[in-house]
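ok so dumb question maybe but i'm new to this and my supervisor (M.) told me to 'just get the structure for Chaperonin 10-like protein' and walked off. so i did the thing. is this what she meant?? sequence i used:
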Amino acid sequence: MQAVSNKLAERIGDVPTAVSAEYKPRSDGGKMKALAWFGTRDVRLIEAAIPDITDPDDVVLRVTGTTICGSDLHLYHGEIIQLQQGDILGHEFMGIVDRVGPNVKNIQVGQRVVASFQIACGECSYCKQKLSSMCDRTNSSGLQNTMYGHRDAGFFGYSHFTGGFPGGQAEYVRVPKGNVNLLPIPDSVPDEKALYLSDILPTSYHAVVDVGVKPGDVVGIWGLGPIGQCCVRFALLKGAKRVIGIDNVPARLKLAQEISGIEVINFSEHTDVVKRIQELVPGGLDVAIDCGTFHQPKTLLHKVEKALMLETDVSEIVNEMIMATRKMGSCAIIAAYAGYTNHFNIGALMEKGIRLVGCGQAPVHKYWEELLEMIVERKLDPTFILTHRVSIDEFPALYASFDKRLGGVEKVFVETRFSAPPSTGAPKLSSVAEWGEEVYTV
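this is what came out, is it supposed to look like this??
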């Protein structure tokens, strides 16, 4: 798939952008550790050149915290097109400013900052509305333009389909348009709380806001990974009177039930999820949110069609949501979908008057200041989702264990040589090998 997509992208050609994806190596020849993609389930820690200021709006960070995201597993399985061997991965990271370009006046060397996972130009009509993920001027993928009719913003470490920008699962990272795409962090907020402003906090908050959760709503959330768990918290903050989480991973169900205090459905036990929800909520949900994944079909039909490349994505969760939601209710998709699906229940969508919202990639810039204020005021503590801390050297094993969803892994803080010690109450450093042989084995 990668060879075909890269060849097709080459034929279509790139779209001109306001930024360059490739960086200039430092003149002293300095090297850094970075996590790179080489094939399906083949990620490796490599020695890469440390980036220098390439464009005048650049900022270079010493990475003090990075992580792995559920959407990174789509890359791990080779399901996102236009991946190329040696691509540096990672779109959630923060750090200390190491160098700034001559045009950058609002960010200083030595400052602690978090980066948005998307790269916004700050000047187009979308950026002026703080819809940073929809920036028109930073993604060069002509293939995405052909498939979708338009392009998202460029993203860090997420293939050439999103611009080909080297990511932050590394010791250093170049941030194009650093004067726009970095948020200063006060000293009172430790890295373990600030890091997730780069993606999962704005993403989950965007889903809840975009679909319009309001006081008194009954909300169903499919997928209790980090995004789903945060959606639970935000739905409750918005006044939902009842939240039901759907998953089949015991540790995730336990976290949602015991820490967030919601009802849960294990779909391995209740295989007919719609029937179970209708038993629990006669009349149906007010709101349903898809925080799941397209790459693990449940039914044999979709497994066969995916294996034969007759579809790229699976419609099962969306169909369940439509069936389980009341007439004139709302469904939202914040889970990452990439292409085409079969057997979508468009009839039920129309006849029930369901509002189906494709949330899109979350516009981080729209929300991250509000969310940082919640953290500062102690209305929100993101560390409830943080289960482990590992060294950057553990990245290949971490991908393998995170993919298997074993060992109670939910969200992981990955430290580099520039990281501060763990803050009070945060997980201490451990090794993936300590979590159990079945977790560690690639």
